[in-house]
Amino acid sequence: MRLFAAFLTLLYLCVSQPLPLDASSVPPVSKSAFDAVPAPISVLPVTIEANRIHFTAMVSGKPLIFLLDTGSTTSVVFESASLPAEMFNLGPTVKVAFPALNRTAQSQRIHNLKLDLSGISFDATDSVFMNQNEKVNLHLDRNYDGIVGQEFFRTFTVEIDPQTLTLSLYPTGTDLAKYYQIGHKVRMSDGLPHIRHRSKMPWEQRASPKDLLLDTGYPGHVVIWDRRQFRAAFGFYTSHQKSGILTLGTLTFGNLSFVNTPIFVSGKIPKNLTKRDGIFGASLLNQFKHVIDFENKQILIRPLYHANGAPMQFVDGQIYTPANEKYVLRLYEDHNRRNGDFTFQILE
């Protein structure tokens, strides 16, 4: 299992938060399109904490808080005083890996875990129960009872509105693309959602393709794991070998532009994560109303604006790294851009 469960805040940077372009640059959606929007089968209230989406579901008559995590290959329930093992029908012991933390934990399979989602049920057939004595819990800054992973996104088309703080669920295969201005393909690899983009880092001679895991469990922006990129940026290996570089860039996504986007570059690649180049995190998606649609292999985005045309902000503007790594802040000048930022251009 690949899981980013919780991350610590490292630093406030005196930089502006990533901002979309102004409303006039985004193509409108026709009124007739909005009139035809299909009705969801369930709508749940959510909270946004550390840039990540949490919702409440009833399990065996008890309300539990779950983290919504596209990067988790299984669903997890964490043992606590209010969630004893006796509540669940437990099966064999399995080992669960937390690659970003470079740790594993013993867990037990849960038989017949059923979540009541405001009138509909979700059967989490791929779920585990983690003992509270597992050392990995010391590294998880948890304020939730469990995690719903990729099987949730295979069961539903998921729409999140940070303005109304709602999570809308549609039957899998429901295509909402015509109701959104901006969309991007998602590439599924080994069941994991990826966004492929081409970018030229400041130290690269030419643009190179990169595959980023779409990970709503990671509260940050962009992570790149690449030893070659790390060596090129530092020029040599030093005591920073176990650290990373934090730099700022401009990421272009359709008609949106994110300026001063924090990008963490590390040469220490977590185990079992060598098949991808990094992470596309929750701080980017949760600024917008958006849809995660595994069945149709797409994410959809609708910018949200105040009455004066200013973009709404829903993320906290803090800096996160995947496993609380230390980093060196380095800002690079690109002579092709007046503001000193370099550009990510996401391609379909």
Which helices and strands, and how do they pair?
Blueprint: E1 9-12, H1 31-35, E2 42-49, E3 52-59, E4 62-68, E5 75-78, E6 89-98, E7 103-111, E8 113-117, E9 120-124, E10 127-130, E11 146-148, H2 150-155, E12 156-161, E13 166-171, E14 182-185, E15 187-189, E16 192-199, E17 208-215, E18 222-225, H3 227-234, E19 244-253, E20 256-266, E21 278-281, H4 282-285, E22 289-293, E23 298-302, E24 318-320, E25 327-329, E26 342-345
Describe the structure.
There is one protein chain. The protein starts with 8 loop residues before the first strand and ends with a strand. Helix content is 7%, strand content 43%. The chain is globular, with a radius of gyration of 20 Å. The chain has 348 residues and is mostly beta strands. Strand 15 and strand 16 form a beta hairpin. The protein folds into two domains: 9-34 and 173-345, no CATH class; 40-154, Cathepsin D, subunit A, domain 1 (Beta Barrel). Residues 1-24 and 335-341 have low confidence and may be disordered. The strands form four sheets. A 13-stranded mixed β-sheet has the order 6-7-10-5-11-4-3-2-13-12-22-23-14.
